[in-house]
Amino acid sequence: MNALNAALIGAVLENTPKNSNPAATVAEILNIGREAAYRRMRGEVPFTFGEAALVAARLSFSLDRIMGTDDPDCVLFRLDFSDGQTLLEDYPGKVESWIGKMEEIASDEQSEFSLAGSSLPAALYLGYEGLVRFRFFKCFFQHGMLDGANNRFDDMQLPPHVFDLSRRLRQAVRQIDTTYYVLDHSCFKHWVNAIRSFRAMRLISEGCVRELREELLRMLDELEEIALTGRFPDGRRVFLYISDVDLEGTYSYFVSQAVQSSGMAVFSVNSLRTSDPDMFARIKQWVLAMRRLSTLVSRSGELQRLRFFKEQRAVVSELDAE
């Protein structure tokens, strides 16, 4: 037991953010006095299992590795999952948690967010109420909560706090110092295909299709402005790459001096995330490889940039009345 406690203390020392006092960090995480924290860090009082779990979760290290029971072929992922029945109920808690994480990461002046995939980043579409509504509608449909003509997109209303939380999360993600996006040529096509499918099933009116089309075009304008300036409106740096290779899935990672997290998009509005360092390295390696195979179009690659946005506007124009 002493060896395990010593290993835990070593992990705390190794994973405490630079310029932070390990004992003070433990005191804050466990909500205990400074002297009680120092006694734990000196090994005079062993950490309880509950305390160890709290510290490991906050400092993003694995208790399995500390205990020597980890399987090198297995990685622990956290599934941020809500089915259709609980999506609206779970949304505030999940988004508030993500806002807190983003603010913590963004407090580091060298923080980075990188994404490579076929899905549009949330930092773009979360600012458009119609597109947020459509994401929820699509999720409800995929979970079997809509029964055809009795549940149309036109009639679906979301609580106002959903849009407020979405805007706050979008802004929090944009506070990260440097962002890298690697998108392929299908990023808007996925939205267009989904809207056209619901129109074919008569679950969305032509009027709502036009509104979604206009929001997609406004989002394209916004993305093009970001590409031209290489920055979000508040000045944070953005590097936009266009891949000529179809990207299978969407992978991303966040990194700061205190936090490493990576993951992938699953089940429409859900994601798998992990703080496992080996998986972080693998996903980061994949994202960087996709970046090397792509063309940088932010503040460069003018011909490729013009061609890409012209192509995407043509894709969105497919939503014109059929």
CATH class of the largest domain: Alpha Beta
The neighbouring-strand order within the major sheet is 1-7-6-5-2-3-4-8
- pLDDT under 50 segments (min length 5)? 69-79
Secondary-structure element series: HHHHHEHEHHHEHHEEEEHEH
**Helicity range of the residues?**
40-55%
Shape-level CATH architecture of the largest domain: 2-Layer Sandwich
* Class from helix and strand fractions: alpha+beta
Spatial gap, N to C terminus? 70 Å
Number of helices: 13
* Mean pLDDT across residues: 85
Which fold name is given in CATH as the topology of the largest domain? Endonuclease, Chain A
Largest sheet: 8 strands, mixed
The rough form would be described as globular
Q: How big is the Rg?
A: 22 Å
Tell me how many strands there are.
Answer: 8
Estimate what percentage of residues fall within beta strands. 5-15%
**How many independent structural domains?**
2
Protein name: Transcription regulator BetR N-terminal domain-containing protein
